[in-house]
Amino acid sequence: MSGQSKLILELQRGDKKAYQNVYYEYYERLVHLGRTYLQSNEEAKEVVQDAFMKLWEIRQNLQPDSNIRNFLFTLVKNSCLNRIKQRQTVIDHHNKLIHLQLQYSFESLSKMGYDYMEIEELKSKIETAIENLPEHCRKVFCMSRFEELKNREIAERLDVSQKTVEAHLTKALKILRTELKDYLPLLALISFEYF
């Protein structure tokens, strides 16, 4: 009986020592793989823990020729890809929310009698200014303003310090104020959520 078959037999019997050996052998490499995909140590650890839990749950269904290493690495990779897809869905949703929020603001301006072209120009400038923010600034700004997350929550999600979040927000607001300086008198006339 090969070492792999013996290990699988031990796992099928619920041998916790054998399970621990698998855990210690692959844990760090799997976390590294997860971190490569997700760019987050915490998320990578969550994915790896889930993979090991899945291994324990299905241990009795393992075949004698099963490759535990491949099984774990495939689980982690697929879980990471699923999380990335979910992130993209969230980003798409945020973009829709941003558009709706801007639309609402511009409709309010229209009712106040501002020229349509002026409003459209303002809308375009704001969207462009937000889109042109550095990636991390934009992400933090959108999470703060459109998801209404606290700095602590943003820091946890992005696996950074609160000071980093505050620095990104400060930088984003400074850039937006500079980019939109010619429109600040108009923005000041409505209850605008960005500034």
Can you characterise this structure?
- The C terminus is likely disordered.
- The protein has nine helices and no strands.
- Helix 2 runs parallel beside helix 4, helix 4 runs antiparallel to helix 5 and helix 5 runs antiparallel to helix 8.
- The protein is mainly α and 195 residues long.
- The protein has two domains: 81 residues, Orthogonal Bundle (Rna Polymerase Sigma Factor, Chain: A); 76 residues, Winged helix-like DNA-binding domain superfamily/Winged helix DNA-binding domain (Arc Repressor Mutant, subunit A, Orthogonal Bundle), CATH 1.10.10.10.
- The radius of gyration is 25 Å and the shape is elongated.
Short overview:
About 75% of the residues lie in helices and about 0% in strands.
Beta-strand content bin:
under 5%
N- to C-terminal separation?
Answer: 69 Å
Helix-strand string: HHHHHHHHH
Stretches with pLDDT under 50, minimum 5 residues: 188-195
- The helical percent reads over 70%
Shape: elongated
Instruction: Tell me how many strands there are.
Output: 0
SS element count, helices = 9
Radius of gyration: 25 Å
Report the CATH architecture of the largest domain.
Orthogonal Bundle
Integer average pLDDT? 79
**What's the structural domain tally?**
2
State the name of the first-level CATH class of the largest domain: Mainly Alpha
CATH homologous superfamily designation of the largest domain: RNA polymerase sigma factor, region 2, helix turn helix motif
CATH topology of the largest domain: Rna Polymerase Sigma Factor, Chain: A
Largest sheet: none
